[in-house]
Amino acid sequence: MRVxxxxxxxxxxxxxxxxxxxxxxxxVDFGTVRASPRERFAxxxxxxxxxVEGLIEKxxxxxxxxxxxxxxxxxxxxxxxxxxxxxxLLAAERARVEIAxxxxxxxxxxxxxxxxxxxxxVQEMVRVLLKQRDAPAPFxxxxxxxxAVTHLHHAGLQRLIKPAPARAKLEALLAANPRRRxxx
Length: 184
What we know:
By secondary structure, the chain is an alpha/beta fold. The chain has a single domain (2-176), classed as Nucleotidyltransferase, domain 5 (2-Layer Sandwich). It contains six helices and five strands, in the order E-E-E-H-E-H-E-H-H-H-H. It has helices at residues 41-59, 75-94, 104-111, 119-129, 139-160, 165-176, and strands at residues 2-7, 12-20, 25-34, 63-67, 98-102. A five-stranded mixed β-sheet has the order 3-2-1-4-5. Helix 1 (41-59) packs parallel to helix 2 and helix 4 (119-129) packs across helix 5. It is globular, with a radius of gyration of 18 Å.
């Protein structure tokens, strides 16, 4: 499986491509899509969208794993990040690439073993996990690779977990009759 990991940012959006499965994976490439803070915000969104579309075309990923928005103290920053995530998700959806989203805390927990890990810790563990001599830089790129690694670990786990027979029966009934809803 080939995974394109994305760490959205309004000035620097990190990306990383890895392939393999939960037990064995390898680095394909990584980098950033940069947009100047002097550009109009809409122009930056366009640049990020075109950059992600180009990455999808170049690397042909099976999945685009995107980091979810984190809690931001500044609401304006949170809104901008949400818009960046939106163009990333739209680019992946347009290319008909499967999309997976992961919370920053889960990414850190998966890669480092501690949900409140610092960026340097994530960067170093990504280096170790991908068997690289040097740590991937900048942090945006290493964070994107961490998102991709998280997807391989969690996607592999989801395939191993089979739904309980009663749940499978319920899902089949719901699929046959879309008006019914599953109990919450």
